[in-house]
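We were asked to recover a plausible sequence for a given structure. The inputs and outputs are reproduced exactly as logged, with field labels preserved.

PROBLEM: sequence recovery
POSITIONS: 238
GIVEN STRUCTURE:
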């Protein structure tokens, strides 16, 4: 039976980039604070946790230290900046001693991470190559249809018929056919609602404060069997 579940959804922290995302470390701290203050059950970071595969081990240690601050499961989907290929930052020896609450998608064909005690499943494809061949939100499969079904996808949403040829495309039809209770998206720095029919789908945007914002933001997802899946924007500490 489905239970109420609260999820903090963010993406694109770009740790290790001292230029374009210079406030990323402070933003990640604020995200972990939000997990605590909202009493959330899960944190999902949908791609580009790290800016590139060359980031320093100090950046990786900082990330792992932040994850250790909470007992809440933290679920990571590799994106186009932190690809899951042979030289992936996630394959460094330092990750062998990761906190037990850290879960990282590794299969490029898609895999499910299931939490029976919460009655929830997360599905995602670990991106090996950011190319037009990669389709982040196809061939979704869940083992238990009685659970909450959450898909994570890092890529470019594009309306039907555009045919831009861009990489890692996500179409409206992909969302409609997902069969999910929520589709968590990453790749865009700005919050964007791309929900289709009765399936909520959102780009959380990056947690770093953008030019027109007073503070950084994350998406707070409340899965509730009685009322559905309300979505709110949650302001971070500035």
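RECOVERED SEQUENCE:
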């Amino acid at each position: 039976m489905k239970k109420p579940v609260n999820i903090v959804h963010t993406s694109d922290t770009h740790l290790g980039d001292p230029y374009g995302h210079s406030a990323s470390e402070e933003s990640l701290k604020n995200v972990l604070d939000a997990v605590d203050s909202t009493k959330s059950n899960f944190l999902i970071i949908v791609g580009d946790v790290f800016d590139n595969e060359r980031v320093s081990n100090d950046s990786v240690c900082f990330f792992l230290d932040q994850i250790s601050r909470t007992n809440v499961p933290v679920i990571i989907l590799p994106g186009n900046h932190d690809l899951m290929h042979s030289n992936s930052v996630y394959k460094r020896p330092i990750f062998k001693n990761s906190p037990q609450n850290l879960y990282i998608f590794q299969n490029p064909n898609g895999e499910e991470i299931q939490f029976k005690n919460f009655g929830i499943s997360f599905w995602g494809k670990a991106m090996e190559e950011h190319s037009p061949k990669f389709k982040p939100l196809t061939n979704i499969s869940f083992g238990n249809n009685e659970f909450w079904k959450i898909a994570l996808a890092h890529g470019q949403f594009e309306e039907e018929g555009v045919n831009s040829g861009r990489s890692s495309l996500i179409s409206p039809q992909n969302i409609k056919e997902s069969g999910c209770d929520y589709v968590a998206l990453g790749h865009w720095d700005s919050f964007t609602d791309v929900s289709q029919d009765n399936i909520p789908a959102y780009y959380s945007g990056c947690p770093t404060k953008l030019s027109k914002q007073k503070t950084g933001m994350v998406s707070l997802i409340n899965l509730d069997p009685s009322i559905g899946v309300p979505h709110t924007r949650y302001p971070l500490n500035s």
